[in-house]
Amino acid sequence: MENNSTITLNKSVTNETISDFNPMTDRKIVPLLLSMALPPMISMLIQSLYNIVDSIFVAQISQDALTAVSIAFPLQNLSLAFSVGLGVAVNANIAMNMGSGNMEKADYYAGQGVILTICHALIFVLLGTFGLRPFFSIFTNDPQVMNYAVQYGSIVITLTFGSLFHVLCEKIFQSNGNMVIPMFLQGFGAIINIILDPILIFGLFGMPKLGVSGAAIATIIGQFSAATLAVTLFIKKSPIKIHKRHLKPNLKLITDLYKIAIPSGMMICMPSILVSVMNRILASVSTAGIAFFGIYYKLQTFVNMPVTGMIQGMRPIVSYNYGADLHDRVVGTIKASLVFSAIILIGGTILFCAIPETLLSMFNASEELLGFGVSGLRILSLGFAFSFIGITMCGVFEALGKGMYSLSISITRQLIVIVVLSLIFVRFMGLNGIWITFPIAELIAAFISVILYKKIIKR
After folding, report:
1. Is residue 23 domain-resident?
2. Where does the UniProt annotation locate this protein (predicted)?
3. Taking Cα atoms as reference points, which of 450, 452, 373, 386 lies closest to residue 413?
C-alpha cells in the first residue's frame, strides 16, 4: 500500500488552472445551478424514458415476462448502487480537493475509483453466474417466470461492467463542472438501447426474435457503447489525469471513498431491498400486484430521474464551495435546489392523479391490474409531493461528506416505515394499505431531514 504522506499538496494549481473568474465560486447561484443541472436532468429524463419504453416492449411478450423483469430489478439496482455509490464518493472528493487547489490528490481519488470499479465488476460476474436462481426462487415458483428472469438476469447482471465504468467516468466529469459530456453519454447509451429493443425482442429487419433475452442484450450493448465513449472522452477531455502512480491501492483514500460510497450505495440499494420485500408481501395478495409495482417503479423514474439529475448538478457546487469555505453559496445552492425539486415532484403528483389509466394502459395492463392500479397510482403519487425535502437533503449530505445522514434518511423513507406499515395495513386495507405507506414515509423522512440539516447549520 502507498502511504498517504506521498500525496503532496499543490496549492499553486489554483493559479495555473483557475482563471480570475471561477464560475463555481463567482457565478450567480441560480444560473450556475441551472447550467450544471439541466444537462444531467435531460440525460436522466432520456434514461427514464428508456426504462418505460423497455417495459412497454417487454409487456408485449406477456405479463409473465413483465413480472420476470420486475423480479430482476433489485439485482439491476444493486449494480446501480455499486456504480453510483462509488461515483458519488469519487465526485465529492475530487470536487473538494479541486476547490482547495489540490489537483494531485484529486487525481489519486480518481485512480482509486478505477481500481474499485474493477473489483465491483468481478463481484457481479460471480453473482450473475451463481446467484440468480437462488435469488429469484424467493419470489416465484412459476417455471415460465423463472425462465424469463434467468434469461434476462444472466445477461444484464454478469455483463454489467460496461455500466460501472460509464458511471465512474460520468461522475468524474461532473466533479469539475462538466455536465454536458455526462448528458451526452447517458443519452447515447439510452438511445442505442431504445433502438435495439424492438429489433432484438421482436426480430425485426431479419434479426432473430430473442424475446426477453433481446431486451437484455440491447441493454448491454447500450451500456458498452456508452462506456467505450466515456473512457475515450475521459482520456482526451478530462482535467483529471490518471497515471500509474494513481492506480496503486492506497488504503487511506479507499477508506475515504467508502465512507461516502457505502452509505450512498446503500441509499441507492434501498429500492432493491424495498422491491424485493414488497414483491414478497404482494405475492401473498396478488401476482398482478407484483407486475403493477414494477410498472409503478418504471413510471416513477420519469418523475424522480430529473430530480436526480438536478441533484447531480447541485453536488459539485456544494462540495466545491464547501471546500473553498464559501458557506453562503452552499446554503443558497441548497435553497434553490429545494425549490426546483418541489416544482418537478409536485408536477409528478398532478400528472399521476390526472391520467393513471392512460399511464397503465401503455403497459398492456390487464383488467385485474387496472382495477386496483388506477387508485394505486394516485395514492402512491402523493408521496412525490412530500419527497422533495428528503431526496434533496440526501444529495446535500453526500456532497458535504455526511454519508451516514443520507443513509438514515434513505432507510427511513425507502425501507423501515414502508415495510413495517405495509405488513400492518395490508391486513385491514388490502393493496391500498400498502400504497398509502409511501406518502407517510416521505413525510417522516422530510421531518428527519430538517432536524439533521439544522444540526449541521449549528456547527
Report:
1. no
2. Cell membrane
3. 386
DSSP state of 131: S
The domain total for the chain is: 1
**Torsion 162-395-76-202 (CA) sign:** negative
Which string of b and e fits 47-77 if b means at least 16 CB within 10 Å?
bbbbbbbbbbbbbebbbbbbbbbbbbbbbbb
Q: What is the pLDDT of residues 271-302, one digit of tens each?
A: 778 877 888 888 777 777 888 888 888 888 88
Quick: pLDDT tens for 177-192.
777 888 888 888 888 9
- Write the single-letter amino acid at 95: A
CA torsion 131→134→136→142, rounded to 10°? 140
- DSSP letter at 362 equals T
Closest CA to 58 of 362, 373, 370, 372: 362
Place of cell 424469463: 148
> Which amino acid, residue 115?
I
Instruction: Report the distance separating Cα 326 and Cα 333, nearest Å.
Output: 11
- Tell the residue number behind the cell numbers 426462487, with chain if given: 137
The residue segments making up the domain with residue 88 are 28-458
424: number of Cβ within 10 Å: 11
C-alpha angle 390-394-396 in degrees, rounded to nearest 5? 120
Q: Output the pTM of the full model.
A: 0.69
Local structure of residue 247 (DSSP, 8 states): G
Residue 172 lies in a domain: yes
Inside any domain, residue 14: no
Count of Cβ atoms closer than 10 Å to residue 256 Cβ: 18
User: In degrees to the nearest 10, what's the CA dihedral of 194, 184, 163, 259?
Assistant: -140
Closest C-alpha to 402, from 266, 268, 264: 264
| 235 is a domain residue | yes
